Amino acid sequence: MHTQLSNVVSTLNCQTTSFVVKDPKAIAFEYDLQSHSTDITQFVDLIATEAGLNRTKQKSAAKLIFLNFIVSHSEAVRLTVDNNFHMDEQYSPLKVGIKTLVTTSGRLCAAGLIVKVTGKNLPHGNGIQTTLRPSSALCQRLSKLKVTFEYPKLVVLRRKIEKVKVPIGYLDTMRADEIQCQLQRYNSLLVKTKIELRDTSGVMALATPYVKRMFIDNGEVDSVGRPRFNAGGRLYAPWVSLSPTDRPNIWIDGEPTVEEDFVASYVNVMYRAVTGKTYVGDPYILSLDGEQLPRHIVKTLASMALNNGSEGSAFKAFRKKLQKLKGSKDPTKIARYKDFQSYKLDDQLAPVLTKFLNMHRPIKHLFLKGKELGNKVQCLESDLVFSIVDKLTRADIPCLTVHDSIIVQKKYQGLVRDLMSGTIFPDRELVGWLA
Question: What is the pTM of this model?
């Protein structure tokens, strides 16, 4: 894979400017990148001489930083410099620690190869964040390298530690191995696929060396202490963060795309698991006192009820989400907030939720059980989506996923619809706890 770097930045002297919150334009630093390509190995040796990187660990750290710049297309990357942060070796093939990264980035900065901006990442606790950005000269040199990436752990298990989701090591299971193989097949196809965002401002590549599925460690293990991988499981990639208005501008291999999603995804995931079939009709169509409520209000309230353990906490989460809509500049979100205001529902949330749950008695017992159950439903949803992704991959048809939707070239729209209507859960053992 010939990785092109397009964005050029100015060469600046080493900086220690502070920012209050994390740099919104910087992407997260990837610790699990690895490449044995001759080009990157020789380049690191050359830079080590220029920047005075005398230790093997420092050369490994420089390699990891350069691989991050290649992946980000020379955009800034955001690196924690909190010495208490530890990345499990399963996710760090180069085995580089935070202290070595800080020391090495400092020397690269002093050599005029990168720009550093340090600051405190307030939204995520006390973790100190540093933004690293390549100089224009480094961009030009990196753009000439031919780099092939090695597959790391594509099945990631994360645990929340002090409000930060941290990857943790685990013992392999048959399920994890199967998912790893699926993801390797999928990534092998993506490497050969040209993915672009095309709009009036131009064309931007949405390349990534690989995509991963992120599972949540909920503490549940099998008889020999291995994780069950039954919570979370969503796939993360550059296109996932695009807004719904941007995604229609995605092109795959020079062709326009279409996005298909599972209708009422998580509700129908539960219906499939419990009854073996989907709900007939739209599960979010509901009337109160003879007046039909806006669908988005019912859907949001139902989502809060799935991911919270009581009516009170569900209503609190619902109102918190409303306040975010109120403060938005997006016309669609503002209109949704006004819908809620016009229907005067603030004192009617309990009757609305009660009516919704009574409409869906077969799955009523799954609501108001807490975030843990919501994470399990999300895992079933992710498995369902990725079973379709794997079928398309085996047919050499590239696709992208965004939570419960699949993006393909328009010529495959009918095929994806057929697959969505006929797909069953790939792992029946995971749905046993729902029945």
Answer: 0.80
pLDDT-derived band of residue 203, with 50, 70 and 90 as boundaries?
confident
Same domain? 178 vs 213: yes
The separation between CA 317 and the C-alpha centre of its own chain, rounded to angstroms, equals 22
The rounded distance, in Å, linking the Cα atoms of 211 and 414 is 25
In a domain, residue 60? The reply is: yes
Q: Is 304 left (phi over 0), alpha (psi -120 to 50) or beta?
A: alpha
Structural domain includes residue 260: yes
Q: pLDDT (tens digit, 9 = 90+) per residue, 260-284?
A: 998 899 999 899 888 888 899 999 9
CA distances 195 to 3, 41, 205, 391, Å, are: 13, 28, 6, 20
User: What are residue 255's DSSP bridge partners?
Assistant: 252
Domain that holds residue 95: 18-150
Number of structural domains (the chain) is 3
Instruction: Please name the helix (run of DSSP H) or strand (run of DSSP E) that holds residue 223, with its range, or none.
Output: none
332 within some domain: yes
CA 47 from centre of chain: 33
Q: How far apart are CA 367 and CA 245, in angstroms?
A: 31
CATH of the domain at 103: 1.10.10
CA-based nearest residue to 155, from 165, 144, 169: 169
Q: pLDDT tens digits for 325-353?
A: 887 888 888 888 888 888 777 788 999 99
Neighbouring C-beta atoms of residue 54, cutoff 10 Å: 10
Q: Are residues 136 and 69 in the same domain?
A: yes
